[in-house]
Automatic annotation (TrEMBL):
Residues 1-346 form the Protein kinase domain. It comes from Ceriporiopsis subvermispora (strain B) (White-rot fungus). This is Protein kinase domain-containing protein. SUPFAM superfamilies: Protein kinase-like (PK-like) (SSF56112). InterPro entries: Kinase-like_dom_sf, Prot_kinase_dom. GO terms for molecular function: ATP binding; protein kinase activity. The lineage of its organism: Eukaryota, Fungi, Dikarya, Basidiomycota, Agaricomycotina.
Length: 371
């Protein structure tokens, strides 16, 4: 037996069998009945009397939906009983994240909730956990990572950037800093692309776990992008601005002004840096034909925060750049840096067919969702 095979065997011995809940799942099982009383149904795996569906059959566990464990202990999918809508449940500690609920309710209340520039995830409900007064369960829409499925055209990427600049400007105009707006905390509303949704644990499977989830492109079914996770966000009074705050780390640890310094800083330029660095990591390091964005992004990630444009200035400059892009450029395929010749040929051929269809059916080159 090779060393690699021995390691794999050892891992298999340590891994719990699929019929055993992981430690991070136990809390959800223990609160399943309480959540059901409030109108939210968890998957069968989390029922107190759960019996694995493959037991007593000739099915393999991997072929069964209830074999799949949750990814993390803080969040879990659920179905709202009243209308069958898939939602996300998130546990949050009020003492650890004192502003998350306040900011979520603020942007989810009228008139801000109906403002088309609002790109903050909607907070539908806050549940008080009965056996822990510090713990709340937030109910929100079930979203999907911003780049899954992948962007197909330059125009699709341009629309994503427009919405993100617009959304951050909206937050800043209302004196809210996100303080963690990296790529993982920007997601998309999957409903236009996935009208029948998908399985929350394996996004490539359909909701019924009977096959692949079918979806449309962003060009055919434009979608909206949303900021999530306001756990370390903060809202200020406009009278207090400008403000200086001690460094507060989010997931992106590359903020220049936070390196080797505890000096209070203006948190608003930090948000601008986060977005600029997200563009560098998610787009510049993956795709080759977004060169028109480089001068603006270079300014957004300057080491000296006072030299960065405000998010309002970013939006103005971006609009100017966008207006100069031709339809041909916008409809061009977003080319990945690591494509080999065969992959490039295959994707380009399919792209030409799709673009001919989109032009014929008058789908815009920049797929903007309706308000």
């Amino acid at each position: 037996m090779s060393e690699q095979d021995a390691i794999l065997d050892r891992v298999a011995e340590l891994a719990p069998p699929p019929e055993v809940l992981l430690s991070r799942e136990v809390w959800w099982r223990d609160h399943q009945s309480w959540l059901k009383e409030h109108g939210y149904l968890l998957r069968p795996r989390y029922a107190p009397d759960w019996v694995p569906s493959w037991k007593g059959t000739d099915k393999y566990p991997m072929d069964c939906e209830d074999n799949v464990a949750s990814l993390g202990g803080r969040v879990l999918d659920a179905t709202r009983v009243s209308d069958g809508t898939m939602v996300l449940l998130k546990k949050t500690s009020v003492s650890d994240h004192p502003h998350e609920i306040e900011i979520g309710k603020y942007f989810s209340s009228e008139p801000l909730a109906s403002d088309p520039r609002n790109h903050c995830v909607r907070l539908d409900e806050v549940l008080d956990v009965p056996d822990d007064p510090d713990l709340k369960v937030l109910v929100m829409p079930l979203l999907r990572p911003l780049d899954d499925p992948r962007f197909q055209t330059v125009g699709e990427a341009v629309e994503f950037l427009r919405q993100i600049f617009e959304g951050l400007q909206f937050m800043h105009e209302h004196a809210v800093v996100h303080r963690d707006c990296m790529g993982l905390n920007i997601m998309m509303d999957p409903r236009p692309l996935f009208p029948k949704m998908f399985h929350p644990r394996d996004r490539h499977m359909n909701r019924e776990w009977t096959g692949r989830a079918k979806y449309y492109s962003r060009t055919k079914r434009p979608t909206k992008y949303l900021f999530i996770d306001f756990g370390i966000s903060k809202r200020y009074s406009t009278q207090d601005l400008p403000i200086l705050e001690p460094p507060h780390w989010g997931g992106d640890r590359t903020v220049p002004e936070y390196q080797n310094s505890q000096e209070p800083r203006d948190p608003f330029p930090v948000d601008v840096y986060y977005i600029g660095n997200m563009i560098r990591e998610y787009f510049f390091q993956r795709f080759r034909n977004l060169e028109f964005m480089k001068p603006l992004v270079d300014d957004m990630v300057q080491d000296e925060p006072s030299k960065r444009p405000t998010i309002r200035e970013v939006s103005v400059r971006f609009d100017s750049v966008r207006q100069k892009l031709s339809n041909w450029k916008l409809r061009s395929r977003l080319k990945e840096l690591d494509e080999d010749m065969f992959t490039a040929f295959f994707r380009s051929t399919g792209h030409c067919i799709r673009m001919a269809y989109y032009v014929t059916t008058r789908h815009p080159a920049i797929p903007t969702p309706k308000p």
